[in-house]
Amino acid sequence: MRVAIAGAGAVGRSIAGELLENGHEILLIDKAPTAISVERVPQAEWLLADACEITSLDEAALQRCNVVIAATGDDKVNLVVSLLAKTEYGVPRVVARVNNPKNEWLFNESWGVDVAVSTPRLMSALVEEAVSVGDLVRLLRFSHGDANLVELTLPEESALAGTQVGDVEWPQDTSLVTIIRGTRVLTPSREDSLEAGDELLFVAAQAREEQLEDLLSVRREDTAR
Q1: What is the pTM of this model?
Q2: Which residues form the RCK N-terminal domain (predicted)?
């Protein structure tokens, strides 16, 4: 898979390193000569250019990319890169970094963004996830379909503890994608039982999040009444 990363700072280089280890073809783009550090990621292609300029993106052959990642420290630049990648070059998948949480509302399909990653929001979500049991935590927002990746740790008193996945009537537009149980990562089947303490990861429509949280957090004594 060919991936272009706009922004060759610490974030961009780290992403490039991870993707290269997974066997992907990487192009790093940055307009600052000081950011071009080929020796830090020697396996990647490097381009000294302004990723907001059509001529630069033509040189980068963006139309051949499967994914574009806008990873600069400037939200305006990330939005422009995302929009150009999607509308001018038809890139199938555009991921954008959100630096200022106040700008998060802009990072959507209208600006060509498929997935917006807000570092401050993600850090706060991980803190919540570490200390919250029974509360739904939003980890990641997907622009297409208005869906989010959400997590909930199943509380001890949940009525669903001991219930098989296939026997649960999940809300519409939600999908249980992973169960994390201790050190194990499980792909849920209909026969798997939910256990107290399980970390459950869902892709869910935002409108269904409250309903999903209510379902998972309901106490046994409440269902017995």
Answers
A1: 0.64
A2: 1-117
